[in-house]
Amino acid sequence: MTNPSRRIRLAACAVAAGAMLSGLTPMAGASAAPLAGPATGVPSADDPVPDHEGMPDDGFEDEPESEQDDLAGAATSGASRSAVAAAPVPGRPADFKLAKGTDLSGLVTKLDAGLPKQGLTELLEQANRPAADCGNTGIYGPDLAVSHRICWKADDDATSKEWVPQAISGVSDAQEDEDWGTSNAEPVAVGGYDAVNPGRSDYIAGRDNCLESSASDACNEKGIRVTFFNQATKMYRHVLLVWPYMNSKDHISFDALHAREGRCNPVIVTGCAAQNGIHAGGMVWYGNYLYVADTANGMRVFDLRRIMDLNPDNDAAVNDPTPDGLESDVQDKKQIGRQNNVWYGYGYRYVMPQVATLKFTTAKNGGTTSGNQCYATGRPKASYISLDRTGTDHMVLGEYCNTNNGGSSPGRVGAYPMSALTAAVDGATGTAASADEAYGLPTGAAFGNEDLWHKIQGAMRYEGKWYFHRSNAYDNGRLLQATPGTVGGTTQLVGNAKTLQSSFGPEDLYLAHGRGDGFAPQLWSLSEHAPDAEKCPVCKREVYRYDMAEVISDFG
Predict the structure, then answer these.
(1) CA distance linking residue 325 with residue 115, whole number of Å
(2) Are the C-beta atoms of 435 and 93 separated by less than 8 Å?
(3) To bridge 261 with a disulfide, which of 55, 94, 161, 253 should be the other Cys (CB 3.0-4.6 Å)?
């Protein structure tokens, strides 16, 4: 229930709240709030509505394959390697086809009417977390000189057990002039997932009520968050990604991003299934849209014009009024969405709702993926994505695979015209976007006692060549290069025999092209592993970049 002592500012905000409410039509089951005076009167009706199940399934498939696990399976001999993939699998663009899923625009419009918004430029100016001093200790190999490093605060690096950074994009992807608004922030965006993945309260699995005072605020599976770095101020801010839905009382609400929801009403019952998180291994910010990879399904799409602000007065100690006549609470880290007439975001000030879904139309291959196996045909995995601006704008999408456990492919990549993806997002349900290029990864090269060309965590295409980040568990990864070539009458990716040693735990790739700011092109990436006394004492989570000219030169 609402704490009366935290409503002391509602009267002062009443006029502004009333102005925002003018012209709004109450939703079903809700009564209009007054246009003047404090929002402390009778709240909107909050009674259950028949036939609503509460947290419904969002239509996404689960991701049970221990996504991107370098340690799944033992390394194999050279003979076994060649048995998995003697030659690159054929590129099949049709396997990569995406189509827009159920229209979410009506839900987002309702959410938009109920909550205040914040622009990204203002969010960057109000970034609240200073980047840390990176120090002298490096996590990099000797082959590439790091031209810039960004480090996280300790609670986002060494002490964070929940959030693991994976994806990276930035203003160079967003627009060619690299100038977002009137700011010189040149923002970089990093996506991370909740790796603790405990699910919501689940009595069947022995989990207690996450709302109890004794429960940790890490009890719930929080899904995905995106962090925006302001390069001018060296400050950053987290934004929680959410999914809009109508709750059991027929009110618009939102929940964190999950691959599966349970029937979890405010009263916890045994039918409340645990949630499964998603990995978000890749991300592209293009125009106003943020595309986030969903491994088993395709992509989830968010609109940066719809960032909701749950604490506009920037005072977390006082609940703020919302345009729908309710209020928001950013101190409670255990609740999400609309609960008992109060809005929550697991303690985050900013939430950004999903506005569209792009789902693969091809059926999955029937083989098991429990050990990161991949296959030559069927729906690919959306393990990572990036943007190529060196010709007609294209999005690159590819698979993380671990051939140590079998399968028939070390991975595939495809490329989509961005015009087709944007048209699908803006179009009706079923509007399709097709890849116009696809390849299997090169084969035949070895790395230690296993395949070189698998365990790919990120890929990008630049001036016709392809670059890949290959992870290596808790050790230095490798940057790889490949070029399309004709072999035996078939066009395929041909790998450069040279590899460049990269960071510990290398992830996604992002190219800052420098056309707007006049700087030389820079290849950005990030590392995922926090320092661990047993697994990797020298590991560290950093965001870093290389001069692209040096990368090209080093490959020869």
Answers:
(1) 10
(2) yes
(3) 55
Residue among 340, 338, 332 at smallest CA distance from 353: 338
pLDDT of residue 179: 86
CA–CA distance, 54 with 310 (Å, rounded to integer):
22
**Is the Cβ–Cβ distance between 497 and 483 less than 8 Å?**
no
- CB atoms near residue 351 (< 10 Å): 27
Q: Which two tokens stand for residue 310?
A: 């749950």
Model confidence at 289: pLDDT above 50:
yes
State the distance between the two ends of the chain, measured CA to CA, in whole angstroms. 65
- Which residues, 6+ apart, have CB-to-CB distance to 13 below 8 Å? 313, 320, 321
Calpha distance 98→85 (Å, rounded) = 26
Burial, 335: exposed, middle or buried (Cβ in 10 Å; 0-12, 13-18, 19+)? Answer: buried
pTM confidence score: 0.89
Calpha distance 414→360 (Å, rounded): 13
User: What residues does 446 pair with on adjacent strands?
Assistant: 451
- The 10s digit of each residue's pLDDT in 177-217 is 998 876 788 999 999 999 876 666 555 555 566 777 777 77
User: What pLDDT, in 10s, does the model give residues 105-141?
Assistant: 999 999 999 999 999 999 999 999 999 999 887 899 9
Give, for 421, the enclosing helix (H) or strand (E): helix 418-426
Backbone φ and ψ of 480, nearest 5°: -115, 160
Alpha-helical regions (H) of 167-224: 171-174
> Hey, how many other C-beta atoms are within 10 angstroms of the C-beta on 211?
16
Placement of tokens 């698979």 in the chain: 399
pLDDT for 482 beyond 70: yes
Show the 3-state SS of 366-379.
CCCCCCCCECCCCC
Dist. CA 221–CA 196, nearest whole Å: 7
% of the chain with per-residue pLDDT over 70: 81
Name the DSSP class of 292: E
